[in-house]
Write a structure and sequence with these properties.
Helix content is about 70%, strand content about 0%. The protein has about 475 residues and is mostly helical. The longest helix has 22 residues, at about 465-485. Mean pLDDT is about 85; it is low at about 1-20.
Length: about 475
Amino acid sequence: MKTFNILLFVIIVKIGFSQADYTTIEIQARKKLFSLKFSEAENLLKTSKTINSNYLLCYSNFLQNLLIGGTENYSKFEKQFDLSSKFIEKADNDSLKYSYLSEINLQNSIIKLLNRDFISGAYSFVKSYGYFKDAENTNQKSLLNLKLSALYNIIGGITPDKGKVFLSAIGLKGNIAEGLSQMHNYVIETEKNNIYYTEAFIMNKLIIAFMKEDVGSVEIPISKFNIENNTLYIFSKIMIDYKEHNYANINKNVNLLSKQNITELPFLYYILGVANSINNQEKAIKNLSFFLYKNKSKHFIKATNWQLARIAILQNNEANFNTYKQKTLELGSAFTDADKQALAEAEINKKPNIVLLKARLLFDAGEYAQAKSVLLKKENKEIIKTNDEYVEFFYRLARVYYEENKLENAKKYYKIVVDKKTVKERYFAPYSALQLGIIYEKEHNLNEAKKYYKIALEINTGEYKNSIKHKAKSRLENLTRIIHKTQ
């Protein structure tokens, strides 16, 4: 959820789109904000009592809640949201009034949901979409409206079925493909004024990178301007490298950020800890422990303690493993996928198999050849004994072969996992079926792809249940449309 809302902002152009009339101070503050220098940005904005400054002050607090969290930032955001809402509501005949109100109510909705205040979050989302429709009616060519329309289409498209009933009631259906197209157009329009280009480009890049399994292969764009040194751009690269298993790049990019004297981002310590768990355990333990010390939110606490438990297994430290396992069970909130997975694994009354764990951590680090070597080493295979361990063994082997683009081998082992289905309440079989569907779709074998997407939905269970359901259903629906067109 952090990644979908890492950015926002509005823009300009000379072709009929509305333009925010920014003062010099507001432009300076905006640059500070997107360099993640929140205090400096807010100090500038507090001297400017305009609709733009109130919007940006709210956004600054929104970003701090996403990237830092904690009760203090939550209270600060609530206060600023109330002040900004009242100020913007009083604005007369401002072309961006309703767009701004839509945006900050969407921010409020996300923050409420992250803090598990679902009723208030849903209420704010309804208000946000209502303001968006008002904005469309009064100012259809606003570039901010183009961005909002893209976000609503994507949000509507990725929402699980239960949520779609709620969205349908307010008239929002959502369409991922249309949303991605609008986001692409949003970036193109910002090229005409590169002051605002960076934010649009990063948002688009993050969405594409994190939605590959939802929409298939989409090319990640190359920047047309030099934004390599932008703080938020470096942060986005870290997030994408984390998602794409390019752990070798993470240490380098975190070092770049640390030299820029930015506001501390505790989440970076979590990523550093995970990235170094297999090759530099001392550094991993230091950073994971520091994250637990600095973290102000409820999230990634279970995931961090479980990562420390995994390292204890690698170090053959039974006492530390039991300590961190208990903390995983007792502390934090199981809201993010990482926390849900940590809890699911900690609840198993058995210590993780060290061979499978090593292979998994090597795979996560992008070291696929080493992961395969660990799995196929004769003496290691003898440590894998139970049916459930064999299911995970075939699953991890299939994932390695897929990343090596050895698709026939990947299909072979994914099919074994789907057929066995012995691991209760885990994601191995449904995710394998999903991956088989993706492989067959790449090979243009649409009937087989359709078959395995259906299987993924039928046998779906485990900690990634909602994610797998959405991905399989989204791809199945898209495939059905393609097949219908060709008939």
